[in-house]
Write a structure and sequence with these properties.
The chain is of the alpha+beta class and about 80 residues long. The protein is about 25% helix and about 25% strand. The protein contains three helices and four strands; from the N terminus they run ααβββαβ. Strands 3-2-1-4 form a four-stranded antiparallel sheet, with helices on one face. Strand 2 (about 40-50) and strand 3 (about 55) form a beta hairpin. The structure holds zinc ion (ZN).
């Protein structure tokens, strides 16, 4: 089971296949991953659809490499 740091790292730097394979570390549920573009900043939110697990990454982030393929909002596989 991946921890919060491992998930954060994969979401920011992983491939499309890697992020689609992620699941909630608390309940193994489906994760909803959203990338929100501000004027200069990008924020990323990872939220479980079943429990209260959530990761928010804010700040001067590069846009994750998988956005071109998966779009700015998607759900992981179960
Ligand atoms: Zn969960």
């Amino acid at each position: 089971m991946k921890d919060v740091n491992a998930i954060s790292n994969l979401v920011m730097h992983g491939t499309s296949a890697e992020v689609r394979g992620l699941m909630c570390p608390k309940c193994s549920g489906v994760l909803k991953i959203g990338v929100y573009r501000g004027r200069r900043l990008v924020s990323v939110q990872v939220k479980c659809k079943k429990c209260d697990f959530i990761i928010r990454l804010d700040g001067n982030l590069p846009e994750p490499p998988w956005v071109a393929e998966l779009g700015t909002e998607f759900e992981t596989k179960t």
